[in-house]
Specification:
Blueprint (H helix, E strand, L loop, with lengths): L1 H23 L7 H30 L1 H6 L1 H192 L2 H11 L3 H38 L5 H29 L1
Helix pairs in contact: 1-2, 4-6, 4-7
């Protein structure tokens, strides 16, 4: 019966909606979807009527149970009234949804544009995600390294803890032995005090000698660092002087070659061959000089980096002799090459 009442209510609602649509429109034309739903609802009504006829026979036998369940039916009727209220609310919601559908159809164009912009943003976000994934992988690798180091430190900690426990056991044993030996120590205190006094004098003298040796060693280290710094500065200064001499020798050779071979007519002839003016030819030569100055700046920066590297080696922990030797040998080889280049240039100029 409840299903039948619901279906009848739905049919009444559909008929009311179709009547309202017929009144609002000039030419009444119900939609195909509403007709199909009406037919489905009518079919359901027929089926429910058939089921009601079938169940009428069973209802006669269940009259006794109906009397017991009347109270429950009253409660259900209250629920039905609530459901009717919900139906009314749903009708209003359907009308609101229809108006919203029209508004959504109008806003579909704008939503498509926003979708395109969002797709672009999604692509950009995907690229950012890929970059973040790479950074996360690198962080994971660092974390693995840190965990390995942590496990190593934990092993060292456990080893140290075991050693401490063993030493504690030894200390307890030694304390017991010390208690046993206290009675014997009382007899030897006088002799031991004299011996300790002598040993204190000897240890004081030994400490003074050690302190003097430490001061001498510190002075030697300072002298060694000053020697290394002075040596590196002298090397860098000599390399710079060789570079300047090489540049001057090159310029002298170019000037001699120009004074021997070039003249104003030859400059004009070179400009005509290159299909440029004499001013452009001079600019080309100035560009070469600019390249040489840029090269000199790069070499100067390399020298500064080399001096900083040696400073870091001197300030670093031991051992650093091999690295210092490699750096000095590198600069000496550079000086050797520059000397060979300078001698070859001087021979050609002579």
């Amino acid at each position: 019966q409840q299903e039948k009442e619901d279906l009848e209510g739905k049919l009444k609602l559909r008929e009311h909606l179709s009547q309202n649509a017929g009144k609002s429109e000039a030419t009444p034309a119900p939609s195909k979807n509403i007709d199909s739903e009406m037919k489905q609802l009518q079919c359901k009504l027929k089926n429910s009527n058939n089921e009601i006829t079938k169940q009428s026979t069973t209802i006669k036998s269940l009259k006794t149970e109906v009397q017991e369940k009347e109270e429950r039916i009253r409660e259900l009727q209250a629920k039905i009234s609530r459901l009717e209220r919900d139906l009314n609310m749903k009708r209003h919601l359907i009308e609101d949804l229809r108006s919203r559908v029209k508004a959504n159809q109008e806003n579909e164009k704008t939503s498509n544009e926003t979708l395109e912009s969002l797709e672009r943003k999604v692509k950009a976000l995907a690229e950012d995600c890929s970059n973040k994934k790479t950074s996360i992988d690198s962080l994971k690798q660092r974390l693995n390294v840190a965990t390995k180091e942590k496990s190593q430190y934990e092993q060292m900690y456990h080893k140290a803890k075991d050693e401490l426990e063993q030493k504690d056991l030894r200390l307890t044993n030694l304390e017991s032995k010390m208690i046993e030996a206290e009675c014997a120590m009382t007899e030897l205190e006088t002799a031991a005090s004299q011996q300790l006094h002598d040993l204190a004098k000897q240890s004081g003298q030994a400490l003074e000698t050690v302190q003097e040796k430490l001061l001498v060693a510190n002075d030697k280290v300072k002298e060694f660092t000053t020697f290394v710094k002075a040596l590196t500065r002298e090397l860098q200064h000599s390399v710079q002087e060789l570079r300047t001499k090489i540049k001057q020798a090159k310029k002298m050779g170019e000037l001699r070659a120009c004074t021997k071979s070039l003249s104003q007519e030859s400059v004009q002839l070179a400009a005509s061959i290159l299909n440029v003016s004499t001013a452009d030819l001079e600019e080309i030569l100035e560009v070469e000089e600019d390249e040489e100055t840029a090269k000199a700046r790069k070499e100067f920066e390399k020298d500064k980096e080399w001096l900083l590297y040696i400073q870091k080696l001197l300030e670093a922990q031991f051992p650093f002799a091999s690295y210092l030797m490699d750096a000095v040998l590198e600069k000496l080889n550079e000086k050797k090459k520059l000397v060979e280049e300078y001698t070859s240039l001087m021979k050609h100029t002579v």
